[in-house]
Amino acid sequence: MLRARKGLDMERAADPTSIDVIASALESVAPVVSRLSSPDGALTLMLSDIANAGEVALQMGPEAWEQLLRDHHLLVERLLAHHDGRVVRFERDGFLASFGSAHGGLHAALELQRTFSGAEDDRGPRALALRIGLHSGFVIAGPEELLGRNVVLAARIAAHAEAGEILVSQALRQYTETDPSFRFESRGEHHFKGLHGEHAVYSVPWR
Fold this sequence. Notes:
The protein contains 6 helices and 12 strands. It has 207 residues and is an alpha+beta fold. The protein has a single domain, classed as Alpha-Beta Plaits. The strands form 3 sheets. The chain has a 7-stranded mixed beta sheet with strand order 3-4-2-7-10-12-11, sandwiched between helices. A hairpin with a 2-residue loop joins strand 5 and strand 6 (124-125).
């Protein structure tokens, strides 16, 4: 099982990431089901994966990597549940999750980074650098998926994150900016594939 310890940073992998795989799968499903939303009309979506996962897997070897993924999935589910979140889908080292509260989603992101940046296993330090993206908005609820442009936007923001970074949308910032426990640093406006217009993105420091 992973435990807390001092962390390290990793570079982004060149190959398609787990966030890319999740985004592609979601875009290929037609949104023909009813809307699902929180009481104020929006869900908060989180996508995350392990930065440079391919190189980490090669360094660890197949058996140790599979064990790390099992531990990763278990800890993610427990941490998210503590903040009233749920995992919608795991994809290798990545996942899509939803929260009824933007505050809950962002607090969960901070706790995930702090936990995995200081992970270790029975053989010693095993720090992981996560990439996390969050966005709040209306979504489409299918039998096993969350769909729609806001899911795609959340995935695009997450894919833009560097190792050890939390990126959020303008909408999520507006929901949470009155909370003094959060700080936001502008990362500019971006045009994302498959989405119209420019989208403001912010980094949330967690160290």
